[in-house]
Prior knowledge:
It contains 4 helices and 9 strands. A hairpin with a 2-residue loop joins strand 3 and strand 4. Helix content is 23%, strand content 46%. It has 146 residues and is of the alpha+beta class. It has a 9-stranded antiparallel beta sheet.
Amino acid sequence: MSTAQDQFIALIKASKPVEPAVLNSIFDQLPPIRPDQVLGEWNGGFFDTGHHVGDTLNEIRWVGKSFKSVDDVDPVIIDKDGERTSWGKWGFATLKEMVYRGVVSTTMIYDDRPVFDHFRYVNDKLIAGIMEGKTLGDDFFFYLER
Length: 146
């Protein structure tokens, strides 16, 4: 029987549309992650669930996130002429441990937007994420890789 981690990795590798219910089920089985475990530079990807945030991220050439410290996070790093740079239009963020779906794990809180990114541990080089907020509609599912 495959673990939630194995299932999450398989969905990334499949690179095809995924139902949010499937991603929710897997996410809820993943273990928590501490803020100190996410510090550093991460490359990003997301699942094709038809969510409008995916179109925006493709348009701006999103490549990941930069966690300089728990109080200094650049949530939207883009590819500008082959270089990783801050997009800046969604502001900055901080990391806190918060309860999400009954689990205390790391959450990234945007400074200037009513948006939260909740993280769970997949392995030392892969994190699962759900972006949620009042203005987003449905949850947006993504992942970060070192």
